[in-house]
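WARN retry 2 of 3 for item q-0093 after timeout on previous attempt; input resubmitted unchanged.
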Amino acid sequence: MKNEQSDLETRRSEIPISISNKIKDFFKTPNEKYNYPLTSSHEFGWDTATYLNKEKKYPRLDCDVTSYANEYHKLKGRSPYASKDPIKKN
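OK item q-0093 returned
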């Protein structure tokens, strides 16, 4: 196992730096590669990182129908919209 790791490390050190940089650049996103969008399709969503960092948490609100169905299910054990009673387990 140690021989495999050292062999891998020597192989990595044998790769020329220019090729290593090209491989790293290949996996970069367009935002990381360029300062400005190059095409019109890049313009849409170019600055999404600034929008995604803003955390907006909205409280979960139930409408009156959902509240009714939840309470009905708690009391009766079935949906108010079911056409027949659930199968009882013995």
